[in-house]
Amino acid sequence: MTPFELAEPKSLADAIKLLDPDDPTIRPMAGGTALMLMMKAGVFRPAKLVSLRKIEAKYTGIAAGADGLRIGAMTTLNALERSAEVKKHAPLITRTMLTLSNVRVRNVATVGGALAHGDPHMDLPPVLMALGAKLTVVSPKGERSIALEDFFTGYYETSLEKNELIAEAHVPAQGARRAAYMKVTTGSADDWPALGIAVVLEADGKAIKTARVVVSAATAKATRVKSAEAVLAGKTVDDKLLARAGDAAVEEAEFIADVRGSVPYKRELTRVYLRRAVQQALDGGAQ
Predict the structure, then answer these.
(1) Contacts for 205-209 with beta carbons within 8 Å, 24 or more apart?
(2) For the domain bounded by 60-171, which CATH number is listed?
(3) Same fold for the pair 5-51 and 60-171
(4) 5-51 adopts what CATH topology?
(5) Which of 171, 174, 213, 276 is deepest in the core (most CB within 10 A)?
(6) Residue 102: what pLDDT?
(7) At what angle do helices 263-282 and 239-252 cross, to 10 degrees?
(8) How are beta strands 68-72 and 165-171 bridged, if at all?
(9) Are the C-beta atoms of 274 and 168 separated by less than 8 Å?
(10) Three-state DSSP state, 11
(11) pTM here?
(12) What is the distance between the alpha carbons of residues 135 and 140, in angstroms, rounded to a whole number?
């Protein structure tokens, strides 16, 4: 690992001032779990890291209100997992956290860092996207809001500017919506998945009113598949409907081949697991 300067600003505003959009060797650091691995591997050699660990406490915490959950960007994944407010208002997140990486990572990694990293294999992006999450991001120009489905632009790429930081995530309460997240791994349950799929439904029995479906890991970025949603919305679930929804998702999503599987394999996984995720959501999300 090459030597680097470490800055520890006391506020988000001061941290933003230290970021230079014209200097790619200056990087912000939240939990650092992914960044440090990249540095050790020599993939990234920063001249300066801007640590966010000492910024205002208001960016570390979870609050529930009439409009849902507000989650500070510096909230650790462990805190997200253990939060009573999250379990009450968005139980899908709580269930997902149990197999998101391992406890050592969850103790350090942050919500903002996990999203800003743009890794398509992460479990949190598809879940938050299916729930309709939005991000508040801050730059020298001020604040702006970004729907999470518009945040990821490509493989490890996001719409964040070089001098812009995530301040918080707003997640609408799950309410009576039924939800499920399923992933396919070839190793342990907390391994990187070959496919992740999140489904959030408004339904009366097996009659689906609205649907949000997000595919990840098999694709270059977490992707909301609106064609599959359109197939499901306003219909009563049966095998033929689920098969049509799976076909629609496969036609819309852009799959990638990697060490976890070929494109044909991941397309078939999507057909199978979309069916299973919808059924699991209708059953109340029990895993």
Answers:
(1) 206/236, 206/237, 206/238, 206/282, 207/235, 207/236, 207/237, 208/232, 208/233, 208/234, 208/235, 208/236, 208/237, 209/233, 209/234
(2) 3.30.465.10
(3) no
(4) 3.30.43
(5) 213
(6) 77
(7) 140
(8) antiparallel
(9) no
(10) coil
(11) 0.93
(12) 17
Residue 248 CA to residue 241 CA, distance in Å, equals 11
Point out which residues pair with 198 in neighbouring strands. Answer: 181, 214
- 106 pLDDT more than 60: yes
What is the token pair recorded at 194? 């070959």
Which residues on adjacent β-strands are paired with residue 211? 201
Distances from the Cα of 64 to the Cαs of 67, 69, 85, 134, 155, in angstroms? 8, 5, 6, 15, 32
pLDDT value of residue 190? 63
**pLDDT tens, residue by residue, 155-188:** 999 999 999 999 999 999 999 999 999 999 977 7
Q: Looking at the domain that runs over 178-282, which CATH code has it been given? A: 3.30.390.50
Residues with Cβ < 8 Å from 72, sequence gap 6 or more? Answer: 58, 59, 60, 61, 62, 111, 112, 167, 168
Mean pLDDT for 132-157 is 97
Whose tokens are 């800003």? That residue is 116
Is 57 in a helix, a strand, or coil? Answer: helix
